[in-house]
Amino acid sequence: MKLHIYAVRHGQTYFNRYNRLQGWSNAPLTAQGITDADEVGKRLSQINFRAAYSSDTDRAQVTAQRILKLNIASQPRPELKAIMNFREQFYGYFEGQDMGSAWLAAGGPHGAPTYTQIVKQFGLAATRDFLKEADPFHDAESDTEYWRRVEQGFQVIASDPQLLDNDRVLIVWHGNSLLSLVHRFGGSAYEHSERPKNGSVTCFDFDSNLSFEESIRIVSYGQ
């Protein structure tokens, strides 16, 4: 079964505005975040979604609900399924901290004091592994732990009895997760040095007949 996924980054939150790490934390949408959700809802209003998923964080669910409310092509509108598998990565001890300070703590001991430098020198997976290493409680997710959880989320979609081949599915997700997805599956075909904007849409095909490593083909990023 091949599905066409429309993955939306949630609207702006206060932690986004303040440049703080926001993984499993639940900062609410700002006024701009509500506008982000409504604008992308209008853009996607003519897409016939057979199913709708989101992270179970408030920011993702509110964004998804506003998108579905504006959708006129899906009859009936799908019921939103919010699952923890599509949460942003868990930053552990560093949840809510200033991004610059957190990435300095993670990458500084390795000679890479910023997120960009960690990725450039060691790869994106190292951002998760270095942060877990720097976390005094080691609660932050490693790269392996993060992808195991996300893969289980796609297994939930693949087992959805309502879905048929070539159906369209909405997922409201998170910035670093979308960046990570394109980094892993998009290769050099896409510019993925920065997270997509709040309210942007990333499109990809998901083929549940293939192994996870081969199952995703990026169509567009952060549009």
Automatic annotation (TrEMBL):
Protein known as: Phosphoglycerate mutase
Top-level taxon of the source organism: Bacteria
Site (described: Transition state stabilizer): 174
Keyword Ribosomal protein found: no
Active site, per annotation: 10, 88
A Gene Ontology biological process term: negative regulation of glycolytic process
PANTHER family: FRUCTOSE-2,6-BISPHOSPHATASE TIGAR (PTHR46517)
Protein keywords: Hydrolase
Residues that coordinate or bind substrate: 9-16, 59, 88-91, 175-176
InterPro entries, per database record: His_Pase_superF_clade-1 (IPR013078), His_PPase_superfam (IPR029033), Phosphoglycerate_Mutase (IPR051695)
GO CC terms, sorted: cytosol
Gene Ontology terms, MF aspect: fructose-2,6-bisphosphate 2-phosphatase activity
